[in-house]
Structures are given as structure tokens and as C-alpha cells.
From TrEMBL, chains A, B:
Organism the protein comes from: Sphingobacterium alimentarium
Signal peptide: none
Keywords: Kinase, Transferase
Origin superkingdom: Bacteria
UniProt name for this protein: Sugar/nucleoside kinase (Ribokinase family)
Domain Carbohydrate kinase PfkB: 20-278
């Protein structure tokens, strides 16, 4: 049984108030895969890269992540994104987006991936997300979908089709408002849960995350940080940690979902401490456990 | 021993997407006093009103709150504020501010108030806050200060003086950033705690609140609400509930502060359900207990 993650494996160039990088390894599936690999040992990626990606794939392989589902396009160039964060780190300008090989991405599911029990559909065109689902012979136990406002603008009908086939949707608060047409996140969640997913996770960045489902609500804190060095990939790292935890504990219910969100938040809190995937390359289980305990003491109270 | 609250007792006229009021009873001390009265039975207000306030004072008296410290200016007009909330309820325009009797407010502390053990200095000029402290013969066990960006703009030096004499400061996230010159709330808290207070509470509205002190951080959730009817007074209601809880349990430490924040948040969640003080007039202890339990289930998780 395995956790399959579909998403971008790419190059990023990032500028923050703390510094500037050349092309470094990025992409939603990269961040999610690295994050999940600390919690679950059978993680498999589906993506497309160009020949220019070269040895960079070793960052992913080094964590024992399967890469047979990452197509390498001969002579092709990998997806490239470049952005500059503002001083508040909550907003950014995209400087460059080169789709390159991603423009014709048609996800290939190797036979060895057909044991997929947990599927994370990273932020891609809803069409690609649908194709992935169709190419799995058995419906996974849990399908989590990440998307963004862009697809609500340009491919809403396709997005609604894929929403009907997933168990969990993760979006941010503005996207939840856009998708539902409701300002109140409670009302927004009610409308979105009628579109298909059984659970909705609303990511609020420095304000934490909300989980809606089974008629319940859970509010997870974000760890207040003295410095956010680079927020790139934090949402994908969150999703990877969330999935990795659920794949590990195997049982899907609201209680485990809550813990999964805490694990996802903890992994994301590491991600932002350095540029790109740097901090996710060599975490120890001790560091992760200590971070989880910080979340416990951050949010625990005891009213008699 | 008593809980003394200094602040405005006033008239408001409010417009929200849900409707519009004529002049109704408002004011920081009114909201805080009503809120505290559900948790502690010896609440005393210090304020100033005009003769026009008339029988409206009965809303406060009805909850057993002491009003000897509310000066009535003969022929004077009470402070009046009118505002209109935008559709998102997070921003508002002030339509009218008439200081009236508040312009010359010089707080009178009746002899019967000298048993003050808990003091809430509501949002007023730092000068008035300082005068109140000077007029108490004994330093209270706990002094909580509420303030706002306006006083940071026009009376920063006075504000810094009063900050040296208080135990807890409550402000919102933008104000914490302004006061400290730091964007990160962790860094902001470090600077602000060097200005005098032992504890800092950062109010984040729909995103909850953060407590800093004793080298620890606590993140309290806000209750996600289907409808926010009128946010006026929510911050004051929070402060009143916070103080009322601490006055009741009598012991000041980080653990009790955390619970106090949950009580304050619960009281604030009632406040916004109706216009002005309407919802704070006749709450039951059962309603409050049930709301506290909602906060418990909202934020509780159990990682082995």
C-alpha cells in the first residue's frame, strides 16, 4: 500500500527580504513528498520534468521516495517559477512562470503505483487531477485535493467535477470564500461540503488552519515564528505531512484528521525556516517530536 | 475586594449589513462590565456620562454592577460614536465621534472603590489611565491596559509611561506591530514585554488571540461563527470576561491566564450575535458553560 502524490517537480528562484536564490529545486510534489517521507515510508511521486532537472532528482530519491512516475521529457525544460516576497511575507509578486514540460503534462501511473491507498492531488489543472483518478484501477481509501483560485477562475466546471470524487479539499480562506460565495467560513464550509468532499481544510497561513467535517470544527494554531525565511512550499509541505500522518495511522476519522493537521502544521513550520526545500532535507524524528510538543503546549488549556 | 473597570459609557449608532440602530447603549466600560458581571460579583465602573444618559444606566445596574464611580455631568451630553461596518465586518467607517463630556473626563475614584484588586484600564487617553492608577491608594494585584493605535500616534510618550505600571497589555496585531516596529509577532512581543507589561495579549479578531509571557506562548482560537451580526464591543467584552475570570479564580499565572482568554473569547462570541449590548443583558450560566465546551472541542487534540 502506498501514498501517491501528483504535482509539480520544478525549479524556483526566490527573493525574500532575507536574500535571493538562483534556480533551486521546488514544486508542490517535491515539498509534499519530502514532508510525507518523514512520517510514512512508501511515498510515490507522479510528475513531469525536463532533462535539465538532472541530478536534482537525488534530493527526492535520498528520502526513499519512488520516482518511477516522474516522466523525464528528453530535451525538455522543467517548470520554472520565480517570485519575490514583500516585507510582510504574506504577499508576493510572480516574476516569471515558464510552464515548459508542464504545459503538456499527462500523468503516467506506473503499474507499481496501483497499490495507491492514499492519493494527494496537488495543485494542477482539474483535468490532470481527473485523469489521475481515472487511471487508478481502484479508488484509493483517501483522496485529498489541493487547488487554487486560478482554477476557480478558468476551469470551475472541471474543478466541480473533480470535487465530487475527493474526500478532502484543502484551500485557503480567500479561496473558500470565492468557491462558495460566502464570507463566513462556517457558511462557506457548508456549501463546499455539499460539492463532494467529506472534509474541508481551510489554510490561514500565520493564523493556522480550520478543519470542517462530520458536523464538527477543529481550529489548529500556527506556530508563531520569530522569522519566516521563505514561505514557498509551506502549503504543500502541510499537505504532505497531513497525508503522511494519515497513511501511517491508517484510520480515517475526525480525531486522526486533527492530529494530521497538527503534523502538517509542524512540517510547514520547518519548511519556512530556510530557502526552498533546504530545511526538509535532513530533519530528525527528534526535531519533529519536539516541534509537535510545541504545538501541544501552544494550544492546550484545561478548564475544569 | 473588587474589580474596577475604567472606560467609556456611551451611546452608539451602528449600521451593519444586517440592519441599523438608533442611539443605543455602548462604551468600552459598559461591554467589559456586563461581561465581567457573569463571572465575578463585585464589579465597579468608573466613567463619565451626560444627563441625557438617563435611565439607560439601568442596563448596567441590573447586573449588580456598582456605578458610584460614574460621574453624571449636569446638562452634559454623553460620548457618542456612530459607525458603519463593511460587508466583511472586519473593517468599518466612523461616521460621527462626539466626545461631549468625555473631553474633560477626570476619573473620580469613590472611597468604596479603594478595595480594587483587579483594575481594567479601558481604551482612553494614557493620561486618564495614569491618573486612575495614581488615585488608587494601593497598587492593585493585577492591572490590565487596553489601548489603540490612535494613542500610539498622538500620545506615545504618555502611553509608554503607563505601560511601565501595568501587568497585562491587550492590543490587536496591527497595533503590536506599530508599537514594536516589528512585523513578526514573536519579535513584537519581546520588545513590548520590555516596555513594562509581564503579559501581552494580541487580539486577532476572527483568528483568535495570542498570549505571551513567562517565556511561553498560548494560541486561543476564535469560535467560527455563521453570522457576525455586530462586532461593536467585542474586544471590550473579551477584556471584561478575561478580568472577571481572573478575579474569580484569584490566582494569576500562565495557566489561569489561558483559561481567562478562553472565557473572554467565549463572552465576545456572544457579544457579536446581536446589536450592541443586547446579547449581554440576560445570558445564563448554562449558555456560558456550553460555549466554553465549544471552545474545548474546537481546539482539543490528543497526540500520543
Amino acid at each position: 500500500m502506498s501514498l501517491v502524490i501528483v504535482g509539480t517537480v520544478a525549479f524556483d528562484a526566490i527573493e525574500t527580504p532575507f536574500g535571493k536564490t538562483d534556480k533551486i529545486v521546488g514544486g508542490a510534489a517535491t515539498f509534499a513528498g519530502l514532508s510525507a517521507s518523514y512520517l510514512y515510508d512508501n511515498v510515490k511521486l507522479v510528475s513531469v520534468i525536463g532533462e535539465d532537472f538532472g541530478d536534482n532528482i537525488d534530493i527526492i530519491k535520498a528520502k526513499g521516495i519512488h520516482v518511477e512516475g516522474i516522466e523525464v521529457v528528453k530535451g525538455g525544460k522543467s517548470f520554472f517559477w520565480s517570485g519575490k516576497y514583500h516585507n510582510d511575507m504574506n504577499s508576493r509578486d510572480t516574476l516569471v512562470t515558464e510552464l515548459n514540460v508542464l504545459a503538456d503534462f499527462d500523468p503516467k501511473i506506473p503499474a507499481s503505483y496501483q497499490d495507491c491507498e492514499y492519493l494527494l492531488l496537488g495543485n494542477l489543472t482539474p483535468q490532470v487531477q481527473l485523469h489521475t483518478l481515472e487511471r487508478l484501477k481502484e479508488q484509493p481509501k483517501l483522496v485529498v485535493l489541493d487547488t487554487m483560485n486560478f482554477w476557480m477562475d478558468v476551469a470551475l466546471e472541471d474543478l466541480k467535477k473533480v470535487l465530487q470524487k475527493v474526500d478532502v479539499l484543502t484551500i485557503n480562506d480567500e479561496e473558500a470564500r470565492q468557491l462558495s460565495g460566502e464570507y463566513s467560513l462556517v457558511k462557506a464550509s457548508e456549501k463546499i461540503l455539499q460539492m463532494g468532499p467529506k472534509y474541508l481544510i481551510i489554510k490561514k497561513g500565520e493564523h493556522g488552519a480550520l478543519l470542517f467535517g462530520e458536523g464538527q470544527i477543529f481550529s489548529a494554531p500556527a506556530l508563531p515564528l520569530a522569522e519566516v525565511f521563505d514561505p514557498t512550499g509551506a502549503g504543500d509541505t502541510f499537505a504532505g505531512g497531513f497525508m503522511g500522518y494519515l497513511a501511517k495511522v491508517k484510520s480515517i476519522n475526525f480525531t486522526n484528521m486533527k492530529n494530521a493537521i497538527i503534523y502538517g502544521s509542524a512540517m510547514a513550520s520547518f519548511c519556512v525556516e530556510k530557502f526552498g526545500t533546504e530545511r526538509l532535507k535532513d530533519l530528525t524524528q527528534e526535531e519533529i517530536s519536539a516541534r509537535i510538543q510545541q504545538f501541544v503546549s501552544l494550544s492546550k488549556f484545561d478548564i475544569a
